[in-house]
Amino acid sequence: MDIKGYRYIPRSLFEAITFLCQALPKRAVPTFLELLFGAMLTQNGFVTEAWLAIAAKRHWSSYYKWLQTGIWSWVDIGLQTARLALQHVPPDKRCFLAIDDTVIFRCWFKAPESRIHHQHGQKANRPGYVRGQGWVSLALCISKTKRCVAIPVLSRLSRSTGNSGKLVAAKTLLRVVRPVFANRLTTLLIDSWYMRKTLILPALQMGYQIIGQVRKNTALYLPAEAHNGKRGRPRKYGLKLTAENVYQLPVVHQEMFLYGRRQKVHYRSARVLAYFLGGLPVIAVWSQFEQRDGTMGRPRLILSTDLSFSAPRILLAYAKRWSIEDMFNQLKNRWGWKEAWQQRRQVLHRWTQILSTSYALPSLLSLGNGEQEQQLANLCPWRINQPITAGRIRKGLAHVLRHVDIRSMWNPKTGKFSPLNCSSRDKQPPDRQKRA
Fold this sequence. Notes:
Elements: H1 11-21, H2 29-41, H3 47-52, H4 60-69, H5 74-86, E1 95-105, E2 114-118, E3 129-144, E4 147-157, H6 166-177, E5 186-190, H7 197-206, E6 209-214, E7 220-223, E8 237-240, H8 243-247, E9 252-258, E10 261-274, E11 280-290, E12 300-304, H9 311-319, H10 323-333, H11 345-366, H12 371-377, H13 390-401, E13 410-411, E14 416-417, H14 430-435
Parallel strand pairs: 1-5, 5-6
Antiparallel strand pairs: 1-3, 2-3, 3-4, 6-12, 7-8, 7-10, 9-10, 10-11, 11-12, 13-14
């Protein structure tokens, strides 16, 4: 086995895959493993590319048929991935979930849920309106020293017709994953687009706490003074916090490690009532970053429904949300999400979930500090002194597992995935056996 390089593969990878296979029927596991490793070893999102990356034991059409008509659930794989990722978070620590959306460009109007989307990023090299598929993703943000990694859990394709939009997709994802995080303190990190009453209030009822950015002119009020005993209904809101009133709050200057580097932050905070949430008490933090030339950046306003959070902790927690943007970049450009193409919505969900899981496994391995993880990442000698990332882990796996019989590593009797299950003599594919 050492000749093939299996000793470089961390034992945790085989244990993680064995854990994932518990969410599938045993009959579907071998095909799932072949497609999972094929997607992990290639940068293109085509099923045929994944089939060519391994020593497949079935005809290529069998894998398409399994995706289309196989009896298995892609939601169960996503929930099992979440349970696997939770093993890297101590039970007494708070979990941070992030929800965001992205657009996969499509030029054919008959693609599943293909429609015209508005580009909110306002990039100079992109048009304002594009045709594509809108995906809403939920990820678990796990911190390692000063780096935060977003592990994709579930992604849902927004419907192009009807009243089911991105907010409905986000609430569906939160409702589906709630049993996994039921016994954990969980905080949801969202951007300004998802800071809506129709999402925040249902999320609070599910047990989530919310931290998100809102417009700087959001209507916020101080708590009303105690009732003076006069006739009439007591006041619900106190003084409205305008820009002048916010400027009178005491400012704190602090140096913090945010968004990959140390930055000087100037912030003000107060406990206020959010008008758009029906007077819900929240912690508001007005912050500005000091640029390298000494000028001040644009002001930002961040709200937290968890009243036990301090202002610095709110800023540090919300900075974890940026890891989901890096996750989208890796999935779309390095794991072939933008090339993922299927003719039906259900089949596209299945194949996209396999691609997401193939990214989640190397990402979880990059969080480990074991000797095997170091050896696997160091198979790329030109990046030895760089941080261990999912891309480095995939490069190491490609050196060892490319064109390998993955199916033979699965033992259906014991339900374990291990290279020890392989026979000492490599079996030839059926077409070569006939020629021999």
